[in-house]
C-alpha cells in the first residue's frame, strides 16, 4: 500500500538497508583483499588509500574501492558527524537541480539507489509526483547510505598538508581531536568538493571598502536571523544568489536586491548537454584543445540558476533583480553600504557576495606542498592560452591525468601522481561537473580504476612470488 507523500517509514528504510547489504554480498566477486600491507620506513603498516572528504564523493569512492578488494582505506573529514559535505551547511536550495533519475552511488544495485530509498521512505505516489529531490532528503539518503554500507569516517580531522614520505609514498598531515597526526599512505584522494580548487571569492571592491561585519559570502556561515529588518544586497546571478536572497527574505529582511553584470539571465544549462554516457565516460580521451574550449565556453555562457531557487526568490515580497548592474563603486557610510551601478546607487545594510570561487591552489592548506609541484594547464599547454582574465584563471587549473591524478612538473616529483584530485580541480581535465552528483556513475569508477592500478603496480615486484606461494587446492585427491 502506498504511503502519502511526506510520510516517513523508518521500518521500510531499515528493511531496504538489510536487502541492500544482502544483495551486496551476493554481488561481491572477487571478494578478497589483494594488496599486501605497505610498510613505512619504521616498519609500520600504512594505509592503501586516504580519502580526504566524507561527502557524497568520498562515500562513493570508499565503497568503490572496497568492492574492488581494497581494505586499508582511511576516510577523514573536518566536519562533525552528519555535517560532511555542503547539504547541512551552505547549501540553501530547497531541491537539487540534478534530475531525480540520477544514479551513480548505487553501483548498479537498485536497492542502494536514491529512488528505492525515496519510495521506501515516502511511498511510490510521492516519487511519481516528485519533480526534483529535496536537499534535506538527499542529505538523509547519504546518511542512510553511509550507515547501510557501514562506512567508517574519522570526523574532526582537518588536513593541513599532503607531502612525500621521501620515497614512493605520501604523508597526510592533519589536526585531529587528539592533536596533530600524520597518516602514511600509498595513495591519497582529495574529495574536497567544488571549493577544493581554491577559496570563495568576494570582489576586491567590496573587501577594500566594507568592514567584514557588513558583508558575507553566499557559501559561508551567515546568520540570517540577524538580517531581519535589514536591506540586503546580493551580488551575482547564480543559484546561490537566489537561494541566499530567498533565505534572507524568509528570515525577515525587508528587501533583497540582486545585482549582476549580464543583461539577461542564462536560460539554457549547457552542462545538461554534457550528460551523455560517452562524454561522461570518456571525457579524458578528448583532445586538450576540445577540453579547454569546452571549459572556456562553460565559463563564458554559464548556467542558469536552479528553477526552484529562482521561483522561490521571485515569489517573495521585497525581491528584485537588476541586470546590467556591475559594481561601479562601493562605499561604506556609517553602518550602511552604498553600491553604485551604471543606473543608480543602492543603500544596503548588508551585502551577500554570491561571486563564486577564486582558483588558488596555494591557498588550500592541503595543497601547500603540492601547489608548486603539479603541472597546470598554462604550463602544459601555453599555446591554448588567450589574453584576458578568463584564460589566466583557467590556466591555473591542474593538468590532471586520465584518472584524476596530478601530473608532476618534473620527474623529480613523481610522487604527486599518487594524489588524485576528485574535486573542482578537475574542471578542465575531467569535465565541468564530473565530480558532481550527475557525474558519479562514470567518474567514481574512473578514479577507482586509477587508484587500483597504482596499487597494483606497487604489488608488481611481489606478484610472481605470491603466485608461486599460492596453495589453495580446488581438487582433493
In brief:
The protein has 14 helices and 18 strands. It is α/β, with parallel strands linked by helices. Mean pLDDT is 92; it is low at 1-7.
Secondary structure blueprint with pairings:
Elements (H helix, E strand, L loop, with lengths): L9 H18 L10 E2 L5 E8 L3 H12 L5 E5 L36 H9 L1 H6 L5 H14 L5 E2 L2 E7 L5 E7 L2 E12 L7 E3 L3 H4 L7 E3 L13 E5 L3 H12 L4 E5 L11 H4 L2 H6 L5 H14 L5 H8 L4 E4 L6 E5 L2 E5 L4 E4 L1 E4 L3 E3 L17 H4 L8 H7 L23 E2 L19 H30 L8
Parallel strand pairs: 2-3, 2-7, 3-4, 7-18, 9-16, 10-11, 10-16, 11-12
Antiparallel strand pairs: 1-2, 5-6, 6-7, 8-17, 13-14, 14-15
Helix pairs in contact: 1-3, 2-14, 7-11
Could you explain how this protein is built, in words?
This protein has 477 residues and is α/β, with parallel strands linked by helices. The chain is 31% helix and 18% strand. The chain contains 14 helices and 18 strands. The chain has helices spanning 10-27, 56-67, 114-122, 124-129, 135-148, 204-207, 239-250, 271-274, 277-282, 288-301, 307-314, 377-380, 389-395, 440-469; strands at 38-39, 45-52, 73-77, 154-155, 158-164, 170-176, 179-190, 198-200, 215-217, 231-235, 255-259, 319-322, 329-333, 336-340, 345-348, 350-353, 357-359, 419-420. Strands 1, 2, 3, 4, 5, 6, 7 and 18 form an eight-stranded mixed β-sheet that branches. The longest helix has 30 residues, at 440-469. It is globular, with a radius of gyration of 24 Å.
Amino acid at each position: 500500500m502506498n504511503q502519502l507523500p511526506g510520510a516517513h517509514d523508518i521500518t521500510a528504510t531499515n528493511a531496504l538497508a538489510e536487502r541492500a547489504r544482502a544483495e551486496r554480498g551476493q554481488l561481491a566477486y572477487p571478494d578478497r583483499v589483494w594488496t599486501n600491507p605497505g610498510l613505512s620506513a619504521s616498519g609500520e603498516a600504512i594505509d592503501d588509500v586516504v580519502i580526504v572528504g566524507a561527502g557524497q564523493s568520498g562515500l562513493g569512492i570508499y565503497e568503490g574501492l572496497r568492492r574492488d578488494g581494497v581494505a586499508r582505506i582511511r576516510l577523514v573529514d573536518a566536519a562533525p558527524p552528519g555535517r560532511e559535505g555542503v547539504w547541512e551547511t551552505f547549501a540553501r536550495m530547497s531541491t537539487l537541480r540534478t534530475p531525480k533519475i540520477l544514479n551513480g552511488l548505487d553501483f548498479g544495485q537498485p536497492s542502494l539507489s536514491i529512488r528505492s530509498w525515496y519510495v521506501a521512505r515516502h511511498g511510490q505516489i510521492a516519487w511519481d509526483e516528485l519533480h526534483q529531490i529535496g536537499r534535506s532528503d538527499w542529505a538523509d539518503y547519504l546518511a542512510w547510505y553511509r550507515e547501510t554500507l557501514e562506512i567508517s569516517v574519522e570526523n574532526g580531522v582537518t588536513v593541513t598538508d599532503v607531502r612525500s614520505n621521501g620515497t614512493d609514498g605520501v604523508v597526510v598531515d592533519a589536526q585531529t581531536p587528539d592533536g596533530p597526526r600524520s597518516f602514511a599512505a600509498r595513495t591519497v584522494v582529495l574529495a574536497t568538493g567544488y571549493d577544493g580548487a581554491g577559496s570563495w571569492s568576494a570582489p576586491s571592491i567590496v573587501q577594500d571598502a566594507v568592514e567584514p561585519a557588513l558583508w558575507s559570502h553566499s557559501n559561508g556561515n551567515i546568520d540570517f536571523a540577524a538580517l531581519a529588518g535589514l536591506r540586503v544586497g546580493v551580488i551575482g546571478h547564480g543559484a546561490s544568489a537566489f537561494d541566499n536572497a530567498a533565505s534572507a527574505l524568509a528570515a525577515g529582511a525587508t528587501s533583497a536586491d540582486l545585482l549582476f553584470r549580464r543583461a539577461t539571465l542564462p536560460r539554457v544549462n549547457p552542462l545538461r548537454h554534457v550528460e551523455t554516457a560517452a562524454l561522461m565516460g570518456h571525457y579524458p580521451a578528448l583532445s586538450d584543445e576540445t577540453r579547454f574550449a569546452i571549459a572556456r565556453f562553460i565559463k563564458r555562457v554559464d548556467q542558469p540558476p536552479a528553477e526552484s531557487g529562482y521561483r522561490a526568490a521571485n515569489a517573495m515580497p521585497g525581491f528584485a533583480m537588476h541586470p546590467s548592474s556591475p559594481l561601479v563603486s562601493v562605499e561604506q557610510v556609517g553602518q550602511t553600504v552604498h553600491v553604485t551601478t551604471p543606473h543608480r546607487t543602492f543603500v544596503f545594510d548588508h551585502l551577500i557576495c554570491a561571486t563564486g570561487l577564486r582558483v588558488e591552489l596555494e591557498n588550500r592548506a592541503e595543497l601547500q606542498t603540492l601547489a608548486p609541484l603539479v603541472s597546470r594547464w598554462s604550463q602544459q599547454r601555453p599555446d591554448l592560452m588567450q589574453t584576458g582574465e578568463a584564460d589566466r584563471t583557467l590556466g591555473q587549473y591542474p593538468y590532471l591525468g586520465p584518472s584524476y591524478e596530478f601530473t608532476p612538473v618534473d620527474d623529480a616529483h613523481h610522487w604527486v601522481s599518487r594524489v588524485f584530485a576528485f574535486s573542482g580541480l578537475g574542471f578542465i581535465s575531467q569535465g565541468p561537473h564530473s565530480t558532481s552528483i550527475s557525474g558519479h556513475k562514470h567518474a567514481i569508477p574512473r578514479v577507482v580504476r586509477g587508484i587500483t592500478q597504482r596499487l597494483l603496480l606497487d604489488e608488481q615486484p611481489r606478484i610472481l612470488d605470491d603466485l608461486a606461494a599460492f596453495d589453495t587446492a580446488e581438487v582433493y585427491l
